[in-house]
Amino acid sequence: MTDHGPTAVPRRDADDWEVATVDGEARVTIHWTKRPRNRLDRFLFDLFGTDRERELELDPVGTTVWRHCDGDHTVAEIGERVAASHESERVAPVDETLAHFLMRLEERGLVRFDASETTEE
User: Fold this and answer.
1) How far is residue 47's CA from residue 56's CA, in Å, rounded to a whole number?
2) Among 9, 35, 101, 111, who pairs with 105 as Cys (CB 3.0-4.6 Å)?
3) Is residue 50 part of a domain?
4) Model pTM?
């Protein structure tokens, strides 16, 4: 499990995604190919005929997060956007909810983190 601080900068690693409007709200669908992590995974994928193509449909909160994982926004900035854009009951506590969601995206190889650049004066 990884833990990234508020100054970490998430960047999308998946290029195949689309935005659609569902019930008046934007929703992102991400498409990617699951890669086996080792020979055992590859063997089991082949043995059970597991489809490697994956699709993940995000809800409006996830869509807000995904759209801001562009390498220009820190985790803290994304948290502020989520808190301002969605009902507090849905996202509270924002920091924990966001951290967990970003961790899951990272585990799936859909985002990576860049350390924020610090400017020295």
Assistant:
1) 24
2) 111
3) yes
4) 0.80
Kindly state the percentage of the chain with pLDDT values over 70.
92
List, for residues 40-55, the tens digit of each pLDDT value.
988 988 899 888 888 9
pLDDT band at 118 (very low <50, low <70, confident <90, very high): very low
Q: Is residue 117 part of a domain?
A: no
Residue 4 lies in a domain: no
Enumerate the β-bridge partners of residue 56: 30
**Owning domain of residue 14:** 9-111
Q: What is the pLDDT of residue 15?
A: 86
| Pairing mode, strands 25-33 and 17-22 | antiparallel
Q: How many domains does the chain have?
A: 1
The two tokens of residue 31 are 């498409």
Give yes or no for a contact between 57 and 48, defined as CB atoms under 8 angstroms apart.
Answer: no
Q: Is position 35 within any domain?
A: yes
Collapsing DSSP states into helix, strand and coil, what is residue 11? strand
Decide: helix, strand or coil at residue 32.
strand
Among the listed residues 60, 63, 59, 65, the one whose alpha carbon sits nearest the alpha carbon of residue 95:
65
> Which H or E element spans position 75?
helix 75-85
